[in-house]
């Protein structure tokens, strides 16, 4: 009895190990994130990681239309999984937090994935980077460099008692620049509006475009 159990457990372990080995990871970047907007004040400006707490950042809008003034803060990465040779269309948006310098002058880097902070009183979720595991519900893709997130169904089409069918992955681009509280800081930052008009009146809808550094 016992040996059967162990044989089964071993088989399960072996097969899950082979599944794991079929999956690899891919990181691309660094790249910049640029805002596109009908509003000329916002259009062309870059996003950068701004301090919002201990080892935490949010995605603030920069004052200028060049990321070069603070290149490390404006440099992002994209971590995707590759399963049996096929790259996932969405992945984690990453910012590398540089910690205290090593004795040789280089810094220790903590790969920090973006997540979204939802609060009960609003449909505006704030962006946050921090050292943690990748949040599988907050993954981004790029369609012609335009950043989106995906969701499988659309509950605005649901009917009572009818299990929804035909759900397919949709690209959603509900990015807004809003004045938000990020930790205890008040920033004009990138936020995600879950659906409908933003509850926060300072929000302005924008597109976010991935830009390869030219040098
Ligand atoms: C890693 O991602 C880049 C950009 O999407 C892609 O060109 C490359 O083929 C990927 N590598 C693998 C092993 O999938
Ligand atoms: C453009 O954006 C700026 C900065 O957020 C804002 O002060 C201004 O009201 C906006 N203009 C329009 C026409 O929406
Ligand atoms: C992102 O990918 C890089 C390169 O594979 C890896 O070193 C890093 O740990 C990954 N980040 C996270 C949060 O998993
Ligand atoms: C990608 O963007 C183009 C142009 O905006 C759009 O026509 C197309 O439907 C998008 N692709 C998907 C899969 O949504």
Q: What is the fold's blueprint, element by element?
A:
Elements: H1 2-22, E1 23-36, E2 47-53, E3 56-61, E4 76-83, E5 86-87, E6 92-101, E7 107-117, E8 124-129, E9 140-143, E10 146-151, E11 170-172, E12 175-182, E13 185-193, E14 204-205, E15 207-211
Antiparallel strand pairs: 1-4, 1-15, 2-3, 4-5, 4-6, 6-7, 7-8, 8-13, 9-10, 10-11, 12-13, 12-14
The structure holds 2-acetamido-2-deoxy-beta-D-glucopyranose (4 copies).
The site of one 2-acetamido-2-deoxy-beta-D-glucopyranose has 4 residues, from strand 1.
Q: How many helical elements? A: 1
How many individual β-strands? 15
Query: DSSP strand (E) fraction?
Result: over 45%
Mean pLDDT: 88
Tally of discrete structural domains: 1
Order of helices and strands: HEEEEEEEEEEEEEEE
Ligand species: 2-acetamido-2-deoxy-beta-D-glucopyranose
Helix and strand composition category = mainly beta
Judging from the principal axes of the Cα atoms, what is the shape?
globular
Span from first to last CA?
Answer: 65 Å
Largest sheet, strands/sense/barrel: 10 strands, antiparallel
Which percent bin holds the helix content?
A: under 10%
Q: Nearest-angstrom radius of gyration?
A: 20 Å
The low-confidence parts are 1-19
